[in-house]
UniProtKB/TrEMBL annotation:
GO terms for cellular component: cytosol. It comes from Microbaculum marinum. Its EC number is 5.3.1.9. Pfam families: PGI. This is Glucose-6-phosphate isomerase. Belongs to the GPI family. Gene3D superfamilies: Glucose-6-phosphate isomerase like protein, domain 1. It catalyses: alpha-D-glucose 6-phosphate = beta-D-fructose 6-phosphate. Pathway: Carbohydrate degradation; glycolysis; D-glyceraldehyde 3-phosphate and glycerone phosphate from D-glucose: step 2/4. GO terms for biological process: gluconeogenesis; glucose 6-phosphate metabolic process; glycolytic process. GO terms for molecular function: carbohydrate derivative binding; glucose-6-phosphate isomerase activity; monosaccharide binding. InterPro entries: G6P_Isomerase (IPR001672), Phosphoglucose_isomerase_CS (IPR018189), SIS_dom_sf (IPR046348). Keywords: Gluconeogenesis, Glycolysis, Isomerase.
Amino acid sequence: MPLKQTIDTCFDVEVGETGLSREAFQAVLGRARPGLAWLREVHETGALPLLSLPARDDDLAGIAEAADWLSADATDVIVLGTGGSSLGGQTLAQVGGWRLPVVGDLRAGPRLHFLDNLDPVSLAAAFDALPLETTRALVVSKSGGTGETLIQAMALLTAYEDAGLGDDVKDHILGLSEPAVSGHLNKLRKLLEPYGLRFLDHDPGVGGRFTALTNVGLIPGALMGIDPRAVRAGAARALEPVLAGADADGVPAAIGAALAVGYAEHHGIVQNVMFGYGDRLERFTRWWVQLWAESLGKQGRGMTPVPAVGPVDQHSQLQLFLDGPADKLFTVIATDAGDKGPRIDPALAAEAGQPEFGGRTVGDFVASQQRATVETLARNGRPVRLLQVSSVDAESIGELMMHFMLETIIAAHLLGVDAFDQPAVEEGKILARTYLEEM
Ligand SMILES: O=P(O)(O)OC[C@H]1O[C@H](O)[C@H](O)[C@@H](O)[C@@H]1O
């Protein structure tokens, strides 16, 4: 089933005075037309390579080969890289089983580890605990200049040296960075290439947080058995109405962008909650946080992304969502959970005083929770849109990711900001370097 978006519970008639009027929404949606025209134009000219990815297959053999190389005879594969060089891969890998309770740990094949947060204690413990001889590493940095990734790569080189594997580094590490350009220093390449190891090219035209559909996201996904073709087929589905020239009200991503920007402009609602039901959407919510925050948070504009996972966060954030300040727009991602999972013995259910559980599956229970969350949010005056997929698999995650990349780009057009840069974070990086020099 393709992604289905329902926005009935997003407007004033359903949620009361906190809701956006249909008229105001339509006015913002109309303003999405130039953004859609721009997307079509850059697709045609090739100026935004992201939009050509769903139809590409010339790079798939290289992606499969890299995943095979990393996993052959390996007990462990570590992925170094941060932000956009990690979160897309994490999202796809999770759909394949990485970092899922129990199933993740029981899965056959090499263990996969993303070291995206620079933590000295974890890094030391990881290098101590990993059997380095059978551990391979993928080191990812688009720019080749991110301090966290460089320092991790240096520490890894030393760890291999200390383990007596200094001469075999090229058999353990694969690099992934922008192609070398003469006159421009790529520090990661300069550090690693002398070891004779192989580097894959990061597409210079695809910004970090938009790389899930490139080798950056697809190699880690493939390591967990996620088929890159299926991911791209799902992405093509989300892109299709844009390329087909549909008007804004026929493009789900434009509708989502207009809702978010409409709420920000008309109601000052600048917090957006992504409530994904199911373990396989946990990393997806974190990937979306970077996408939404770094792409839109500029020049005093932007919306704050708030991630939540269901049903577990019903026992954590839902009280606030329902009864705290009415200052959020919600997106609930639901799956066809019904009929899935263990079926409950009626005798046990009766014994426990929960006869309604009897004969139902665990998925039936989750399905009713998804529905109840959407309805109670709306009844409490909280605008909520529902996105439904039949299940979280390679194709639906590709569709969700492309949907939200498009939604982000269109929202940036509506807000009048550049979706593709992140100028403000540079200041802190320069200051951190100064402090390091002073130590
Ligand atoms: O891939 P890299 O060049 O190493 O960048 C990794 C990340 O770090 C930067 O600080 C940016 O804020 C992110 O947008 C980027 O994804």
